[in-house]
């Protein structure tokens, strides 16, 4: 008996050793970053070499397999299997069923919904650094921006928790005695959320947290190039729902491309659809062109750092990135010289290095767009002040670029390129500057730098900026969650995040209740 046991143990030991060798060999053979010890932290987010890209209460995905790449070195991180159209249909159905449960569980009880959102915020807090690292790894923005983006989702959750105790309509005075007039707000139902690569966490958070406390369920399709972030965030949210015995389909997720985006856009079962960026579904959602104006009385010590931050932050890939810097002719040359000098001092490098201020572009295609835009600017009369080159290093790195000398109506100036190119224009009068601001088809964010209070209020008034975000003496980037975020014209008229943007996630009813024994009719009509 003892001999038999010894032989069994020996064989088992050899088997374990063989398996250990096999595991080491497999890791050595894998070219994926997630299999390397340096990136083992990715597994803390529940990620593996191959990941399911569909969640509707259960994880699945049998569609195309896509590989996510790191923009800093163009090496593969991990793989995700996207949704098929059949799986999209299944997810829609489960989402609609989940809404029935969510609406009943939290019926007339927004604070209960707020409690779930509070728990989501707490769960995100616990993994804020590792999730922020994933954003940096997969999107390419520097580490501090990646963590800051997750923090924004956390902040919106906190905001939504408070909002859950305040949403509702007023009781209005009725002209009829014995009647009460009430404005009632109810959830719209299923909110579809399609987000862009540049903010793969925050934009979903803006929509998700507010939509949930309003009583809606959510279906999310993240950018095709940041699927791992979508999966990781969904795993965190799904765990909270599971712990509260709620259907996971309250927060569904489908990774996919144009077919899924098109389906969501056309699907009448999606009661409200939030688009950010380009959805690749044939119906382009306009990117945003931002403006900043510097008048002759501006404090240049505010202008220069603001211009640099807003134009090179996130390597020029923010939706609020400054694209056009309009300078009064009296300060034009001075500001250009100082901004160009500051550009040369921007620390470019590894996004995970805490000292880095400027990382890579998200994709190789973005690098091509960068080069094409510079060439077009030169052809249209622009002068290259600094930058203009692809950097000689691994990854999608390009130099932050300043171009002057172009007319305000040059086509390249009014064409969105999601890259770090700043077009500097020279103006003479206030009227000229304001007109240039409003002549483009997009209108998300704008800012002026001036000490003239009359000019400030003209800028904020009906003949001033027509953008959704109108700033004074601060950058175009860095909006706070307490205010409604969104643009005008081709940028869209919807709002996300703060203020009363919660109203778009709900439907409004005016309710009249007769609690008397009389029946006063409209227009004084009486039946004898």
UniProtKB/TrEMBL annotation:
Keywords: Acetylation, Cytoplasm, Mitochondrion, NAD, Nucleus, Oxidoreductase, Transit peptide
E.C. numbers: 1.2.1.3, 1.2.1.31, 1.2.1.8
Coiled coil stretches, renumbered: none
Alphabetical list of Pfam families matching this protein: Aldedh (PF00171)
Entry annotated with the keyword Methyltransferase: no
GO cellular component: cytosol; mitochondrion; nucleus
Pathway connected to this protein: Amine and polyamine biosynthesis; betaine biosynthesis via choline pathway; betaine from betaine aldehyde: step 1/1
Classification via PANTHER family: ALPHA-AMINOADIPIC SEMIALDEHYDE DEHYDROGENASE (PTHR43521:SF1)
Subunit structure: Homotetramer.
Family: Belongs to the aldehyde dehydrogenase family.
Protein name: Alpha-aminoadipic semialdehyde dehydrogenase
Lineage start: Eukaryota, Metazoa, Chordata, Craniata, Vertebrata
């Amino acid at each position: 008996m003892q001999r038999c046991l010894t032989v069994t143990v020996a064989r088992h030991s050899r088997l374990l050793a063989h398996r250990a060798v096999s595991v080491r060999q497999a890791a050595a053979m894998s070219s994926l970053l997630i299999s390397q010890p340096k990136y083992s932290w990715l597994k803390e987010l529940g990620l593996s070499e191959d990941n399911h890209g569909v969640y509707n209460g259960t994880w699945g995905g049998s569609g195309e397999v896509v590989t996510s790449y790191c923009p800093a070195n163009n090496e593969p991180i991990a793989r995700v299997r996207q949704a098929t159209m059949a799986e999209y249909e299944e997810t829609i159905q489960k989402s609609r069923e989940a809404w029935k449960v969510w609406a009943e569980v939290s019926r007339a009880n927004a604070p209960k919904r707020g409690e779930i959102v509070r728990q989501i915020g707490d769960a995100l807090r616990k993994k804020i650094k590792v999730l922020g690292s994933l954003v940096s790894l997969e999107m390419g923005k520097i580490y501090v921006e990646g963590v800051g983006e997750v923090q924004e989702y956390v902040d919106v959750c906190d905001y939504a928790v408070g909002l859950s105790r305040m949403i509702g309509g007023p009781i209005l005075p009725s002209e009829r005695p014995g009647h009460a007039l009430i404005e009632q707000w109810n959830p719209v139902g299923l909110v579809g959320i399609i987000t862009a690569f540049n903010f793969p966490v925050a934009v979903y958070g803006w929509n998700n947290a507010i939509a949930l406390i309003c009583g809606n369920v959510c279906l999310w399709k993240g950018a095709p190039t940041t699927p791992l972030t979508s999966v990781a965030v969904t795993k965190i949210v799904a765990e909270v729902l599971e712990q509260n015995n709620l259907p996971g389909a309250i927060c569904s997720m489908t990774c996919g491309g144009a077919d899924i985006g098109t389906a969501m856009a056309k699907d009448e079962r999606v009661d409200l659809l939030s688009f950010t960026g380009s959805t690749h579904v044939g119906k382009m959602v306009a990117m945003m062109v931002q403006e900043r104006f510097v008048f002759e009385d501006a404090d240049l010590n505010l202008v220069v750092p603001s211009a640099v931050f807003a134009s090179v932050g996130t390597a020029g890939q923010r939706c609020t990135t400054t694209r056009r810097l309009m300078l009064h002719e009296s300060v034009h040359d001075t500001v250009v010289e100082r901004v160009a000098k500051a550009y040369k001092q921007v620390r470019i490098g590894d996004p995970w290095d805490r000292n880095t201020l400027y990382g890579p572009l998200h994709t190789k295609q973005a690098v091509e767009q960068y080069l094409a835009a510079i060439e077009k600017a030169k052809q249209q009369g622009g002068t290259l002040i600094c930058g203009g080159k692809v950097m000689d290093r691994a990854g999608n790195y390009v130099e932050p670029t300043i171009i002057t000398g172009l007319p305000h109506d040059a086509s390249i100036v009014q064409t969105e390129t999601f890259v770090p190119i700043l077009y500097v224009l020279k103006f003479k009068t206030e009227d000229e500057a304001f007109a240039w601001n409003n002549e483009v088809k997009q209108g998300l964010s704008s800012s002026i730098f001036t000490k003239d209070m009359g000019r400030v209020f003209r800028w904020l008034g009906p003949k001033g900026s027509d953008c959704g975000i109108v700033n004074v003496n601060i950058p175009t980037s860095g909006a706070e969650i307490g205010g409604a975020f969104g643009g005008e014209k081709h940028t869209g008229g919807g709002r996300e995040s703060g203020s009363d943007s919660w109203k778009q996630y709900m439907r409004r009813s005016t309710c009249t209740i007769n609690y008397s024994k009389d029946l006063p009719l409209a227009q004084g009509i009486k039946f004898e």
